[in-house]
Amino acid sequence: MLRISKLVFVLLMLNACHMGNDNLESKVLAEVNDDEITVDQLQIEMLKVSPNLEGAEAAKKMLASLVDRQLLVQEALKFNLERAPEVIWAIESSKAQIYAEAYLAKKLAKLEAVSDDEVEEFVANHPGMFKQRKLFKTVDIAFVNDDLRLDVKLMERNIRTLESLETELRIKNIVYDKSNSQFLTDRLPLDILPKVSQLKQGDLLFVHNDHNVVVKSIDTILDMPSSNTMSISVARKLLSQQKKQAFINKEINRLQKLSTIKVFNDKVDMQFH
Asked: Which pLDDT tens digit goes with each residue over 67-108?
């Protein structure tokens, strides 16, 4: 899944800010031997950290770090590290990522905004996220997924209580961690929300992959409906993300159809077996 990085938006933002101001000379804020650090460079670095990073003190700290970095860059160049294969590849990889993200950012800027009707329909169709939002407090058991000693899918079907789970793990000499946590239903993926919404106190929820298992025992369930304002804000953001990702998928599919692409999986198998 491709995402648009903060850096690309920063560059586009600065480009827009400088349109019509081409005659303004970029001010030099620091000199490091024969190299200069300008206002533009400092602004880019500050925006990369956070759009809210501002003020003279924050700028001075960032400028000091840029000076230190430039000293290291100069030393690297003395050793001709710009010619090192791993450095060349890293630069080319970064450039490719920035080009791809810049193209998508330009396209996504033309997408229509999510409408109020779409937001209202989404809120109405997902009560578990909004009007019927719940807070689940859980007791968690975490352990390594050991295929040789455990059949997690069988455990998920047969084990019904936290006590029986702990007994099973002790019998098989599985080391586990026990802790408390909580989650809100509006933070869950839409595809598992219906399942979680049906859980009752004492039920177990298995979450696992090839390496780790976390079993959540439902301890307390509290009703925490979202306000209308929050519901609209969350729904609009989620729908906007979905619309952008749908466009990205469609655009990549279009480009694939127009291109000649050869992938040599047999060579991949040979190199990464």
From this structure: 999 999 999 999 999 999 999 999 999 999 999 999 999 999
The rounded distance, in Å, linking the Cα atoms of 59 and 53 is: 8
Secondary structure (3-state) at 21: coil
**pLDDT tens digits, 223-248:** 999 999 999 999 999 999 999 999 99
Give the helix ranges, DSSP H, for 109-260: 116-125, 152-158, 162-171, 193-197, 228-258
Nearest partner of 14 among 6, 4, 30, 58, judged by Cα:
6
Q: Which residue from 61, 52, 57, 71 is spatially nearest to 10, judged by alpha carbons?
A: 52
Q: Which of 133, 123, 124, 136 is nearest to 237 (CA)?
A: 123
Task: List 31's β-bridge partners, or say none.
Answer: 36
Bridge partners of residue 141, in order along the sequence: 178, 215
Query: Hunting for tokens 């190299």 — which residue is that?
Result: 35
- Kindly tell me the burial class for residue 143, based on how many C-beta atoms sit within 10 Å of its own C-beta (0-12, 13-18, 19 or more): buried
